[in-house]
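Moderator note: this is an archived Q&A kept for reference. The question asked for a predicted structure of one protein chain; the sequence and the answer are reproduced below.
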Amino acid sequence: MSQRHPIQSSFPMLITTNIQGRKDIFFDPAAARIAVESLYQIQAHYPFFLFGFVIMPDHCHILMNVPEGGSVSKTIGIYKRAVSFNIGRGPIWQSRFHIRLAREPWLALKYIHQNPVKAELCVTPQDYPWSLASGRWDVVSLNDYQ
């Protein structure tokens, strides 16, 4: 049995996970949609607070918090396997992911939302369909978390 990492309950976490070889798998809208929908499917079975996300062509950023009793490693591992399975490809992800505490969650959320603008995939965060900033997807407000 793995032990829960002590930082998991402290603050929302900014998770970054990359595609192997930084291939642009999520440049395909069907694959990007599956990546978003898989996030919500996993959340239904392994609850976590989802504050923000963006699915970039070759990586994902997720701002989340896993409640007591859950595991961020398990949640992200299941998410990555689900996306690979749902898009019908073998393992697509790098084996690890990066995690940072978001001591200032609003700044992390701004970073996530600005990622496609900085990559010149859109003009404003609201224009990018594979981000929470688009207004197309559900979220828990940071004000609801406390």
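Archived answer notes: Residues 65 and 134 are 21 Å apart (CA to CA).
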